[in-house]
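ok so I'm stuck.
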Amino acid sequence: MSTFDERARARAEQLKKRGHACILAIESSCDETAAAVVKDGREVLSNVIATQIPVHKRYGGVVPEIASRSHTQTLVPVVQEALEQAGVTFDGIDAIAVTQGPGLIGAVLTGFNFAKGLALALDKPLVGVHHIQGHICANFLAFPELNAPFIALAVSGGHSHILEARTACDFTLLGATRDDAAGEAFDKAARVLGLGYPGGVEIDRVSEQGDPRAFRFATQVEKEDNCDFSFSGIKTALVNLVHTLEQKGEPVPVADLAASFQEAVVRQLAEKTMRAVTAAGSRTLVLAGGVAANRALRERLARMCRSAQVSFYCPPPDLCTDNAAMIGAAGFFTLMNGSPASADANAFATGGLPDFFGGAD
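replied:
not stuck anymore, here's the structure
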């Protein structure tokens, strides 16, 4: 163990005994460069986000090399702004939390190595955070009364997972997508329909003018008695239908197709999630991730939870998409319940929550 690791562990133990910590958090897993200052895992002192959407919009999706380069250019000013907005200096920071993965590996490495260098220079504990844990912990920022255990649906551009959270750092995987993530399916559907990027936002917007019953998109996995998802089949069905209409010279009913596709994705997410809630006997459901900002999904789950007398939590849209405040919340709970990252820790591109915390998948 290095001298830095020894000092970091000693400081972490002091913070655990105190039960309080002011966390500087950094997020760079995809196309948002973000920094935040979070107090005790519940209070947001600042939350700064530099989005790259205008840059990637012309390509219809995130270009990894461009994303990494943009993070490199933006990290320092974003961190400076987060500290200024919070009214603190580095002396007032107890630890540094950063997304360790999963994500675009070049983007994750940029933020992780920056945070590691900062922690070494400031002699502060470094906390590696799993990106999905961060999304789930965004709910602790929005709802101070929320505590585990609960069932969580974490759904974004790269992830679609149903998890049982016994604590903020103890998860069991109950179900996941077998192929595409829901957010990825939305992006591809939007591209086929000629809509903009990010696709989920555009699909949600256009769906308001469409008929969700105009077309039926379904998959065999919906009939299976499990908590898994599959979105590749309905995405392919949409692509084939659009191509068939175009080849016949017939108009493409974009709004109806968007609404029908969204209905298929939301139906599967909601029904499988409520199956997990019922099987686990849970009385609390938490929604998290970028797709949690989807209007239809939020409304469907809220309605189903009311019917089942289950408490439903979902953060506001600005805490659903990638941000550093959620990483700060997760970093606090990780620090209070575990050990800081070592000086030789590295970022990772893939990996599930149970694996990250040493549990069984």
